[in-house]
Structure to design on (476 residues):
């Protein structure tokens, strides 16, 4: 696979990457804390004229490393990096099993890894998927050829690299194996979002199937119908009473609908265990037949707000997509993710269109017109409306076809299942022994890469065991 020539940039990496003193032959002499930050120099644009350097943050866990062991590389994707990614997930157990070093590298424009001084549209034009993947590839090249440049403990030259991640980061993991097979030996892609579409109403259909399994799906459908009846009525008094019922701030009907959808989407990711489905406790238990569906829905929302300690201001931000027009400050993960949706692939979580004949689990006011108009307002007129999701899939989904050594896991009740390697309608990619796709019974989003617990579903335990065995085969 051809890539642009970057030898001049690579030379700069070797000169500017953080160097560490040798600790001799005793690898256990000084195991650094997994929460210690290190920094790696990257150019703003790997493929253009802006070669200005910036520092990318990474963390390591060398506790289990032994010579000959692999490097397990992770990224948190669309969130800031924390030590969870080096010592709080299943990959730490995998490192112990395989004598691996774990390194978690922050994604550009998230957390403290900022190529530019702000998040304006002009700055975010450098936020491309090709640049993000090349960041990780550049790090791997140095980690394999000159490990002392990036690691504070002795690491064997030319160590094999296994990339792992969940959700969007799971897709990054798969793309790294597909685009850089010479650098990445294998990929564990948990709940990887690989099939993007302009209108991601399958998100709600997956969520709805989970609710149907638990027995409250129809109640949620009826509550949403009641909410829409009020929001679309134009009756200010009724709308005000609805806001009072939900104990939420005064918003426009559309922003109110968006806020409720945001809350439900957050709770759709609640994990399942051997004894408890947390979506039962956080949503369906409120629909016990003692109140109307609308009142039960309001009670559920009040419970979500109380448990999470949401403030009135944070609730406003959930529903108001106009926020951030003029706020270009760094550290806004939501703004960067919004840019990806506007400029890369869409994948907007909208209400299921009536034309599909499928049930609706969120207000019909949450449609493309809720999201898209703000793209140009936030990031400039160069943003294409609508984004070309088909071209994105043609390139990036197409890249994954026929690639070996990728382990895809899909939760049966994952709300992102409409975008995974195995949707409700069938396989998006071939299920082969070279790159198997494993459906995790009763699991939700990326449960297989969380730390092991006694209450884990048997299917989650099995998914981890399969992944462990595959990784051990790859690194041999």
């Amino acid at each position: 696979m051809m890539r642009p020539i970057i030898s001049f940039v690579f030379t700069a990496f070797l000169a500017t990457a953080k160097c560490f003193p040798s600790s001799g032959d005793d690898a256990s002499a000084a195991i650094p804390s997994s929460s210690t930050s290190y920094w790696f120099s990257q150019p703003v644009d790997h493929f253009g004229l802006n070669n200005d350097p910036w520092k990318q943050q990474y963390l390591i866990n060398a506790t289990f490393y032994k010579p000959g062991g692999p490097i397990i590389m992770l990224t948190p994707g669309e969130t800031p990096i924390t030590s969870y990614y080096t010592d709080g997930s299943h990959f730490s157990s995998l490192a112990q099993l395989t004598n691996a070093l774990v390194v978690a590298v922050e994604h550009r424009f998230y957390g403290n890894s900022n190529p530019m001084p702000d998040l304006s549209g002009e700055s975010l034009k450098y936020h491309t998927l090709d640049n993000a993947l090349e960041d990780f590839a550049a790090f791997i090249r140095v980690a394999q050829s000159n490990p002392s440049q990036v690691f504070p403990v002795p690491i064997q030259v030319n160590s094999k690299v296994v990339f792992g991640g969940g959700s969007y980061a799971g897709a990054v993991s798969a793309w790294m194996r597909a685009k850089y097979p010479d650098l990445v030996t294998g990929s564990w892609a948990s709940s990887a979002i690989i099939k993007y579409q302009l209108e991601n109403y399958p998100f709600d259909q997956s969520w709805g199937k989970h609710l149907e399994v638990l027995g409250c799906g129809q109640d949620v459908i009826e509550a949403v119908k009641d909410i829409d009846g009020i929001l679309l009525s134009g009756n200010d008094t009724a709308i005000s009473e609805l806001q009072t019922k939900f104990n939420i701030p005064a918003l426009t009907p559309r922003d109110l609908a968006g806020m409720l959808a945001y809350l439900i989407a957050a709770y759709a990711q609640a994990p399942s265990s051997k004894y408890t489905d947390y979506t039962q406790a956080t949503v369906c238990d409120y629909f016990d037949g003692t109140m109307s569906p609308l009142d039960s829905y309001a009670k559920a929302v009040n419970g979500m707000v109380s448990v999470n300690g949401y403030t009135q201001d944070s609730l406003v931000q959930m529903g108001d997509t106009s926020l951030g027009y003029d706020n270009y400050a760094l550290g806004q993960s939501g703004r960067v993710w919004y840019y990806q949706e506007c400029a890369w692939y869409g994948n907007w979580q909208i209400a299921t269109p009536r034309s599909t004949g499928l049930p609706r689990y969120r207000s019909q006011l949450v449609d493309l017109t809720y999201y898209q108009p703000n793209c140009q307002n936030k990031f400039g007129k160069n943003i294409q409306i609508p984004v070309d999701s088909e071209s994105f899939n043609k390139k990036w989904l197409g890249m994954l076809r026929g690639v070996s050594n990728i382990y895809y896991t899909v939760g049966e009740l994952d709300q992102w299942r409409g975008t995974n390697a195995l949707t409700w309608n069938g396989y998006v990619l071939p299920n082969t022994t070279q790159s198997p796709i494993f459906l995790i019974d009763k699991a939700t989003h990326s449960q297989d890469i969380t730390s092991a617990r006694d209450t884990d579903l048997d299917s989650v335990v099995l998914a981890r065991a399969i992944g462990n065995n595959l990784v051990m085969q790859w690194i041999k």
In short: Residues 7-195+395-475 form a domain with the Rossmann fold fold (CATH 3.40.50.1820). Residues 1-28 have pLDDT under 50 and may be disordered. The two ends are 24 Å apart (CA to CA). The chain has two domains: 7-195+395-475, 202-379.
